[in-house]
Amino acid sequence: MEVSNITYSYRDVPTVYSFTVSSKRIKCIMGPFGSGKSSGCVMALLRYATQQMPDADGVRKTRYAVVRNTVKELKDTTKKTIDEWISRLRPKWRESENKYLIEFALEDGTIVQSEWLLRALDRPEQVKDLLSLELSGAWINEAREVPLEVFEVLDGRIDRYPRKMGRYKCSYPFLILDTNPPDTDSWLYKYFEEKPLSDPQLAEKIGIWKQPSGLSPQAENLRNLPDGYYQNLAIGKDPDYVKVYIHGEYGYLREGKPVFPNFSYSVHVSAEPLYCIRGVPLTIGMDFGLFPAAVITQVIPDGRFRVLAELASSDATDLEEFVTQRLRPLLAQEKFRRYTYYIIGDPAGASRSQLDSRTCFMLLRRHGFQAYPAYTNSLQPRLQAVNQYLTRMINGEPAFRIDSSCSTLIKALSGKYCFRKMKLSGERYSEVPDKGPYSHIADALQYACLGYTPNQVERDSFSYYYEDVNFESGTISREDRDYTPSKPLIIPM
């Protein structure tokens, strides 16, 4: 068999080289567009295939899974990149099995035989397709688009081929990932950045390599890109796009049109912790359903709106559990004790459940809360109630401020709560916000803002009195209990 050679230089991609030669079991490389990540991973698979221990017949056998989030992306991008690099090896492509069979000779007389199984695994239920595979290693292409469940299953399927027989075994089991930067909510960020800080064994097992900004003097792969590629790419792009796709940094990735484009992190997120203003009542906005959410807010006497705390649910939670295990303990903290407050919630919570005669508001009142349905559930009044604060200045200060601890709501306002782009030609978006994981906390904010509108206050005639709720030892001073504002704190719409 003829010896084959592929020319690939690491001179312009030193981060790719460092990533490739590392002996860690799990490795991720992250960088901007066009930085050579995918090509580097193809060459890594070939490199590892040549390093496999030969069997008694002098054959170096490996089997790799190549994973992408969708069939279309797998064929349109991943497979084309693979074809570009391995075509000189004359691989056999089996369409019915989505598999490459690669065979070539090395100068030492051994033969490399490597199977590459291409799989689209964008949904957790597709993980079952991996459960019977016995692999040497795997590559997840554009890992930020692939679920954590797929990653975890792949980690358990590598180092299974070739089967260990005496000293003969898989020489280099690996799981490599390449990706454009995700946001800090991603499982990738948590796994590669946060977990190793508290788990020394994991830190030994995994590693992440970050390529430099495309606009920096250290930018990689420029020799293979058009002149001025990154400079031209940056023109007309918003800062979030530049941060993620050109600088290669973690950032919020907007997949649609933000519902609140007037929100600005630098303007609206308080640099210092926000505290309650003595003698001013609190409004708690609540969204119900499977993922309850709440925001604790306060409008201070000059009319500025402040978000002091949030409660978001990442898992399905019963409302009773949410109230008793999370909301009441939060309100029992020193920061919120001795304050008058009331709840404005999703008006759908006034409907009786088919399985339970109680409504959400009946449950809240049974626990001693003053709780009222929002006067409307129409989208435009809800959005207007928030925007009236986001778009105004009062006494030289933003009318809307949010405590930096409210990370879920900040991400929602930054673009995670969005109008989803429709799969049609042109820039067309859905007419209602996407009901994703950030919609619950965003809806809670809207209900809280409705609580300060004339329609809500006039309808429910809030008295601002404490209910007889016994938090901890729970006695409420007469000064606080009897406090009633001289007039409702309302900002005209």
Looking at CATH, the homologous superfamily of the largest domain is P-loop containing nucleotide triphosphate hydrolases
Query: What is the CA-CA span between the terminal residues?
Result: 80 Å
Number of strands: 18
Q: Report the β-strand fraction as a percent range.
A: 15-25%
* Residues in helix, %: 25-40%
Q: Given the helix and strand composition, which structural class is it?
A: alpha/beta
Key features?
elongated; alpha/beta; Rossmann fold; six-stranded mixed sheet
Layout of helices and strands, plus pairs?
Elements: H1 14-21, E1 26-30, H2 37-50, E2 59-68, H3 71-86, E3 92-94, E4 99-105, E5 111-120, E6 137-141, H4 148-157, E7 174-179, H5 187-198, H6 200-205, E8 206-210, H7 229-234, H8 239-246, E9 256-258, H9 265-268, E10 282-287, E11 293-299, E12 305-311, H10 319-331, E13 341-345, H11 360-366, E14 371-373, H12 379-390, E15 393-394, E16 397-398, E17 400-402, H13 407-416, E18 418-420, H14 439-450, H15 454-460, H16 478-481
Parallel strand pairs: 1-7, 1-8, 2-5, 2-6, 6-7, 10-13, 12-17, 13-14
Antiparallel strand pairs: 3-4, 4-5, 9-18, 10-11, 11-12, 15-16
Helix pairs in contact: 1-2, 2-3, 12-14, 13-14
